[in-house]
Task: inverse folding
């Protein structure tokens, strides 16, 4: 050790604790303190403004009174809700026209979401088994599909499913239509709305709506399922195999239960997304099978210009969707606590 | 451990090779047989191919060439789910969505065994690994040692024909590892099941196994009982990997080896031509240290670098011929030694092993 006397270094603490100039000290200490209590109310206020205020407005309008030939006026009128559930003529007669539209909204959204997730699951699983390079290529392709607007997608499927030049023509030329006719499948297909007396037809059918909806949300399902599936521990599946589980048993007993929460989350997200689909339904659904989304638009912007009725339909759709999501959440929690 | 043909329900590997898609050779002509009821440890450094070999045995990887025979039947192409081998993974691979009991009963559950029967069997197995009171717990609520026991119980549930363990102790702390080694060995002896354990810990292999397979760079270096492998290592790699050893470079002269100017005479004369460059090995506990002026032409001069007292033994680190050597002496009644002391080392003829020198590239 050196015995030379050395000048003691200035303590670090003294540098840190050196007082700031009066003005700076004030701003540095008081600004965050003043902002902190305001931050939470500001955030709550912004959330209310952005989320709750539009809903409150729609709710208020739904209770308003429609003025014939004009807009609407403030009121506490439940007649629009009565019209929705039992029809305008109630109690003389009952109409479930709008409940039927609500049913179709849920039907298409549920089937579309479940189908998209069902098709996305094996695809994503296989994708996670590929090399990193190939995964990147697939993800870029999926993202480019996502970037297409609904209008563009519907246009594409409109051509593909058109009776003269699309899939029905291909099936007719390939002899499939003739074979279906000869083997007595046509009456059944007609019953399902997939054929007319002469040919197969897909446009204005539930099949076309569901097909296009599934196509619309399938890339989202893959993108949402990719992280949990790629994170899955391979040794779990291998352990199941060594215990006698065949590949399908591994999927059923290990993989699906392990990603149950992401699967349910993805399905719910796609379901909510599909509830609002407009162009697909307006192009491919037959009028009696159209959804509430179309009806809402027609009420607000269509010939009738009935904003209170459009708002009442929107409120019913939103509340029903919330109830549906709440029920799913409850069931998921219950099955989690049981297992 | 034998390399002869298998018998009974033992497993036999014939000319097993594994080359991965990128051209890496993981296993090179492996011929082994695992006798029934024995615990065999596959021992080697990381990347030597021991886990690949275990995975091929389990059916989780396929061999590029070669044959696997179990009890006289060829199982080379049999899928993992048909082999009925219990396996404990390094990460334990317990199903997080199932309880402890359901994890153990999994194999029985998928094979359609009645719920009452599988529950009874699961509780029996959990009792065997002393975890019956925790049968209803979630996997996330268990400690590392408890998880390992559950993994063992689960692997045994289907009464496996072969019990495979891939580095089962690596996730445990030192004390728990020691306890589990003893418990696993007792359990294996109780069940009499043919067991293969992969480990890179030579102490673990020595303390648990009936026989050891030492592997290096995809091939088998040596097989035998732990004591045989320790006392008669067949290569300088085995000598240095299994326990500590003193390795010195020398040259063969007239059936003797000249090391640091001293001529050593191994009890079994080396079958090398004159002038061959060799490595001489001698275990630290067989190396004798002389502090007096007694001299012999077979003693190597050295100087003391460090003295370490480790309970019953004292390790003396020595500098000889620019190489570090270790000599183990009993602590009781040991001579006082200080760094820098000049000493002489004797490597007894019967403790000397001579290997061809591994020239570095």
Result:
């Amino acid at each position: 050790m050196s015995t030379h006397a050395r000048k003691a270094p200035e303590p670090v603490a003294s540098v840190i604790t050196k007082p700031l100039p009066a003005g700076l000290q004030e701003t540095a200490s008081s600004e965050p303190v003043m902002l902190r209590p305001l931050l939470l109310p500001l955030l709550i206020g912004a959330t209310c403004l952005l989320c709750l205020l539009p809903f409150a407005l729609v709710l208020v309008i739904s209770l308003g009174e429609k003025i014939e030939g004009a807009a609407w006026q403030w009121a506490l009128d439940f007649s629009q809700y009565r019209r929705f559930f039992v029809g305008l003529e109630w109690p003389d007669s009952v109409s479930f026209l709008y409940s039927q539209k609500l049913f179709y909204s849920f039907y298409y959204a549920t089937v579309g979401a479940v189908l998209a997730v069902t098709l996305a699951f094996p695809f994503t699983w296989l994708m996670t088994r590929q090399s990193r390079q190939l995964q990147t290529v697939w993800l870029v392709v999926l993202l480019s599909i996502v970037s297409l607007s609904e209008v563009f997608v519907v246009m594409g499927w409109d051509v593909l499913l058109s009776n003269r030049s699309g899939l029905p023509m291909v099936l007719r030329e390939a002899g499939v239509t003739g074979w279906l006719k000869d083997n007595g499948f046509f009456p059944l297909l007609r019953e399902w709305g997939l054929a007319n007396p002469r040919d197969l037809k897909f446009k204005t059918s539930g099949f076309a709506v569901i097909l296009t909806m599934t196509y619309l949300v399938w890339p989202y399902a893959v993108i949402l399922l990719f992280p949990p599936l790629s994170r899955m521990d391979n040794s779990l599946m291998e352990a199941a195999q060594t215990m006698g589980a065949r590949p399908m048993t591994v999927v059923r007993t290990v993989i699906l239960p392990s990603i149950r929460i992401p699967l349910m989350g993805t399905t719910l997200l796609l379901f909510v997304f599909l509830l609002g689909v407009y162009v697909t339904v307006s192009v491919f659904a037959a009028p009696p099978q159209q959804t509430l989304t179309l009806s809402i638009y027609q009420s607000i912007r269509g010939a009738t210009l009935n904003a209170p009725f459009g708002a009442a339909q929107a409120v019913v759709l939103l509340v029903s969707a919330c109830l549906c999501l709440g029920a799913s959440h409850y069931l998921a929690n219950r099955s989690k606590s049981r297992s | 451990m034998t390399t002869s043909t298998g018998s009974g329900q033992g497993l036999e590997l014939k000319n097993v090779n594994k080359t991965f898609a990128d051209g890496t050779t993981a296993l090179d002509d492996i011929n082994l047989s695992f006798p029934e009821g024995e615990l065999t440890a596959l021992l080697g450094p990381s990347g030597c191919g021991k886990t690949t070999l275990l995975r091929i045995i389990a059916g989780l990887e396929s061999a590029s060439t070669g044959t696997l025979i179990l009890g006289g039947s060829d199982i080379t192409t049999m899928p993992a789910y048909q082999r009925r081998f219990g396996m404990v993974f390094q990460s334990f691979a317990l199903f997080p969505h199932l309880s402890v009991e359901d994890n153990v009963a999994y194999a029985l559950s998928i094979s359609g065994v009645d719920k009452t029967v599988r529950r009874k069997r699961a509780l029996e197995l959990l009792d065997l690994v002393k975890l019956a009171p925790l049968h209803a717990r979630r996997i996330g609520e268990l400690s590392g040692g408890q998880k390992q026991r559950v993994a063992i119980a689960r692997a045994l549930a289907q009464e496996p024909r072969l019990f495979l363990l891939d580095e089962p102790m690596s996730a445990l702390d030192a004390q728990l590892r020691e306890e589990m080694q003893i418990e696993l060995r007792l359990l294996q002896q109780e069940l009499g099941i043919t067991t293969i354990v992969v480990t890179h810990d030579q102490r673990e292999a020595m303390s648990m196994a009936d026989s050891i397979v030492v592997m290096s760079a995809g091939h088998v270096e040596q097989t035998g009982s732990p004591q045989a492998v320790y006392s008669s290592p067949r290569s300088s790699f085995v000598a240095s990997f299994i326990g500590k050893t003193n390795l010195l470079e020398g040259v063969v002269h007239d059936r003797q080896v000249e090391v640091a100017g001293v001529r050593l005479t191994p009890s079994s004369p080396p079958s090398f031509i004159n002038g061959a460059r060799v490595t001489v090995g001698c275990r630290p506990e067989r190396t004798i240290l002389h502090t007096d002026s007694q001299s012999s032409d077979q003693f190597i001069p050295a100087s003391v670098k460090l003295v370490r007292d480790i309970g019953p033994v004292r390790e003396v680190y020595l500098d000889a011929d620019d190489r570090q050597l270790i000599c183990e002496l009993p602590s009781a009644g040991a001579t006082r030694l200080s760094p820098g002391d000049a000493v002489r080392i004797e490597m007894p003829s019967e403790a000397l092993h001579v290997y061809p020198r591994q020239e570095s590239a």
